Fold this protein.
Amino acid sequence: MKIPTAPSAGDRAISRRRFIGLGAAALAIPALSRSVLFGFQSPFSDSKSLSFYNTHTGEYLSTTYSRSGQLVPSALQEINHILRDHRTDEIREIDVRLLDLLHRLAGEVSCSQPFHIISGYRSKQTNDYLRQRGGGVASGSLHMSGQAVDIRLPGFCLSDLRKTALALKAGGVGYYPKPDFVHLDIGRVRCW
């Protein structure tokens, strides 16, 4: 029969270190599991959230569009509405890949402000109108298919937003410092 012995001082020190480490990990879990904060996705959650402020309509939306890998139809409808063509009030389905790009961008910049929307979906009528006024609007703009958005992020430098978007290598990135926005789309990777 083996007689149990008291742990040595070295064994106790390791146990204390482990105990402290486990305590620190336990304290970190609640902070890491908060994924509602503007597009932040913790490693313990697969929910995707976004916040928007439409600069033309004054509308604000903060919503979770994907939970446990499943799209949330009511949230997608709300997003389609806030990103509608504000000139014609026309609504089009926004491509989820664009939302995922915005979600990734939000996670990279770690900013708690909503994306300010300059332009989301654009009807052909609005696109033609903007082309006639100049400003480099493409005749086949991805805005017309719900695959592009023009944004700014208050409190975050526009050139840094552009650099971060470019680093994602997920589509087109246009930089418009005078009107103060960055264009993002899910077309081929390019910049201007």
